[in-house]
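User: Could you go from structure to sequence for me? I need the amino acid at each position, not a summary. Structure tokens:
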């Protein structure tokens, strides 16, 4: 019988026991002769992500194997489908699981199946369910100890990809931060999200930052260009909701749709600035940057503090575009999703003020 794996389901309603039996057998998750006999689909993580839908698949088996797996499909929200296609979000993640996760020093769920259809932009990933671990909450934010642990692993991951030495880091799906398509995202998304934020946002934005936001279409290419070197492979979306912690403090990272090429401070600034509450961060952003740099130095990587700190400042300003872009989904997310958007905007404004980031931006844009 010909393989059915290339004809992967395009929605959760298309998943079948026979198809899951084949892909789980191929990945070694179930032994030959074991079959999926029953399937129950549960939607999960609503209001957490914006570009994809996640489902927990409860499996009945006639032999040994996982009781559940996770399936990830594209969103059906047209604006985010267009966004995903324009900057290759789905292609990036499939490439990451197939070609990076097996080689890089980063703990991820095991992917049983990952395919991207370049003709229509659809994808499907079936992966290990890490739901037994504690999923950190982006609204609550990370503790300082967890932030340090994540930054240490991030430094190891960046060291692996430093100077894009592994050939896979040059894969065309992994866009550079200064790619014109990324600049377009930050420009167009920010402008549209700013209008929604003006109606619904609760964070008070200082006048100097508002001026920067109003000038994004002109400044984004220059700011992103300042965040490209020294170049490594960056996670791109290193936030608390994508982290799962075990009792021993170790963690697993999920969601690699924004993986791309840029400087390491992109991930550091995003985790510290938007992944921690201002109260938990408590003015220790320089300490956390140095912690990351010390880990890198132990791996033989020299990333000068003055350069790293300047890039950290710039990144916090550029990254306010991410929650602003997500603001476009305001009318299509639940209460938890709206609270997440509010929190991200509040933290973005706070970190920009606390590290005097606008001054670093002005040094680039004049």
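Assistant: Here is the amino acid at each position, in order:
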């Amino acid at each position: 019988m010909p393989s059915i794996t290339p004809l992967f389901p395009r929605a959760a309603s298309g998943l079948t026991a026979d198809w899951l039996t084949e892909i789980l057998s191929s990945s070694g998750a179930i032994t030959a002769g074991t079959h999926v006999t029953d399937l129950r689909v549960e939607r999960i993580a609503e209001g957490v992500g914006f570009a994809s839908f996640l489902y927990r698949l409860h499996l009945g088996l006639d032999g040994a194997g996982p009781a559940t797996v996770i399936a990830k499909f594209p969103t059906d929200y047209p604006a985010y489908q267009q966004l995903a296609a324009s900057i290759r979000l789905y292609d990036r993640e499939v490439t990451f699981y197939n070609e990076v996760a097996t080689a890089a020093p980063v703990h991820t769920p095991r992917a049983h199946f990952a395919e991207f259809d370049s003709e229509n932009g659809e994808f499907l990933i079936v992966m290990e369910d890490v739901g037994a671990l504690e999923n950190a909450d982006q609204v609550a934010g990370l503790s300082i100890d967890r932030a340090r642990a994540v930054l240490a692993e991030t430094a190891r991951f960046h060291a692996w990809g430093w100077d894009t030495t592994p050939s896979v880091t040059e894969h065309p799906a992994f866009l550079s931060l200064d790619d014109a398509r990324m600049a377009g995202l930050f420009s167009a998304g920010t402008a549209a999200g700013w209008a929604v934020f003006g109606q619904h946002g609760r964070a008070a934005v200082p006048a100097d930052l508002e001026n920067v936001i109003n000038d994004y279409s002109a400044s984004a290419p220059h700011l992103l260009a300042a965040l490209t070197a020294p170049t490594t492979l960056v996670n791109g979306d290193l936030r608390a909701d994508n982290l799962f912690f075990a009792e021993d403090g170790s963690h697993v990272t999920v969601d690699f749709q924004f993986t791309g090429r840029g400087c390491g401070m992109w991930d550091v600034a995003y985790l510290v600035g938007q992944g921690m509450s201002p109260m938990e961060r408590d003015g220790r952003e320089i300490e956390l940057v140095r912690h990351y740099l010390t880990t890198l130095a132990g791996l033989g990587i020299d990333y000068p503090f003055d350069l790293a700190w300047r890039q950290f400042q710039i990144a916090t300003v550029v990254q306010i575009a991410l929650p602003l872009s997500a603001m476009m989904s305001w009318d299509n997310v639940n209460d938890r999703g709206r609270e997440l958007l509010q929190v991200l905007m509040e933290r973005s404004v706070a970190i920009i003020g606390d590290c005097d980031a606008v001054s670093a931006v002005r040094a680039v844009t004049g």
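One structural detail worth keeping in mind: Residues 12-128 form a domain with the Phosphorylase Kinase; domain 1 fold (CATH 3.30.200.20).
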